[in-house]
Amino acid sequence: MKQLMKIGLVAASLIVGGCIAQNPASVRADANASSQVNADKPDTDEVSFGDPALQKIVADSMGIRSGTITYGDIRHFKGQPYISAIPQAVENLTSLKGLESLNELPNGIYYLGLNIQAGVSLAPIAGLTVSQLSIQQDGMHTNDFEVLNTLKFHDMPAGTAFNQVEIVGNTGNANRAGLVNDDLNKLAPLFNRAYEANKTVKDFGFNLSNQRITDFSFFNSGPIKNTDVFATDEYQVFSDKVQIDPEGFTENTEVKVPTQVKGMDGEPVQTSTRIWNARTSQWDAIKKQGTTTLATGLVSTDKWIIVANQLAHGYPETIKYANGNSLRVAGTQYYPISWEKTPTPQPEPEPTPTPTPKPDPDLPPKPEPGLKKGTVVYALKKVYLYQHPTFKKGERTVGYVRKQRVNRPMFVVTGYARSKAGLLRYQVRDVNHQYRHTDGRTGYITAKSSYVRPVYYQTKHQTVTVINPQGVNLYKNKNLTQRTRHLRQGQLLKVKRIVKHRLTTRYQLGNGNYVTANRKLVKLGTVTYPKYVMAKGALNRYQTVNLDKKNRHYQRKQRAIFKVSYTDYSRNTSNRLTGVKRYKVAGGYISGNPRLVTNLYYQGRPHSRQVRVIARSGIRGYQHQNLTGRSYKISKGKVLKIRRIIVRNGLVNRYQLTNGHYITANKTFVKTK
Question: Where are the stretches annotated Disordered (predicted)?
Fold first, then answer.
């Protein structure tokens, strides 16, 4: 999941006073939805809200200091409000009344995030137009969740880096009335409309965490593709019993438990890392044979085999599919036991996840906090540090905006607590030394896995890429002593294994040396960075990453080309400002805004599979992708057929022609048709 969001809607967007001011974007609409639900209300009438906390949040998002919202305020609002009534801002909302008035917003809503008490009707949000959505509520299965099918979505512009639609529960591993498999089909209009609006987003996905879903084949049965589905902390109770013959059963008997979780292709999936040992009343490391769990430590009075994923060991591996979809799923799984030779079908009450199997062995254990004290976590979204476990807006001490991965704020977990509503909180210490005014502060932050996660990888990956702008060092020892080499941003590393060092982890490479497994410094898989960029017009160069102190101007006619040392982000010492992309070049920094600069080399195969030579003196074709060996001249104006693009990590790209030869992918030499 990569897990999260708040991205600009269009290139012309500007955040002003808690809203997004911009030109209206196209909308994926429901033809039956109405946008003038309160046409009979005069502009001077006040909007009546059922929850004062929600009214204040909406007023703040529209820049209304008085807190009183009129229909005129809504009808004449020029931007798109950013409405964030999520756990970081408010406890569970007791009513959504009043939100129906937002159907009259001229440009819709940029972000709608609602943390809602179980049983509260979703009807007031019917027909709203949004760019980004986060609905967080327990018990959706028994509520009017199909209202979500009436929502409309702005088409996200091409090049948007990330967006995730969240339909999640509030209680991890214990949402007894969460959405189930059949509910996915009932929400098909929502999923399909959101997908259509986000088809050009680079990393789009759905977050369905804290529900009861066990079968994800819905997502490969329709038009959805190139989409990530993230579903952790699922409460998964199965009906098919595991048969155990009581005769000859001992404490060492190994019981095979085939998984009942299904992936997008209907295949069996088992990502659990631990199993409940009833004899010791502890979680043990799981043993698996493919997707079948090998259970031990059972007692003859057990009614359930319980397996789970410990997120302190990292999120589950991503399962990738042929249509570009991907799945990350984990949860607490309850498999009923039948202590008979021949199973006798009979209804079995669902388990209630409350503290431990004692004194009532029928109740499965409540999962303990997954992170050990001393674990370092970082924030995926905007979070606040609070004075007490029950979050109140007036008790916030520090706010941390959503940052790019390399600059995400970090905290050390020093303890645990629960709010009055029973929500888990982490007691933490701020360890962001770059934030001069917050470093060392203590307090409480949310423990929701969609907001914070361990900063160190806990599982092995085949390859990782260095993403830290300043690079990382390679060491001889796993405690990161005796440096052997410096690695630049963009270098791809092949991993041999992962090793633990106290509460951190390291990756050991094939040469035996070690590198950090810190997610802020390395990232799994291949990450590409531009080696050269070209100015689209006039451009300034500055002395600092924040673009202070201009030290050179490049005129439009120059079409200046820059060699990029590394990609960085501004405002890396601020916990209040997000920061934007910059390129470090010889002599200073330039903007990374795609409206101002472009990669000098094409990054993908053209849709037409053709390019035209535009260089005045033509180009040359070569036998090898490093453009060596025998060559021949190709004149200006010649149209060439492309077989594929050769992406060379850390180097410059090439095109392979249909005749097997290679040419440059430099935009000053060739142009896609």
Answer: 338-372
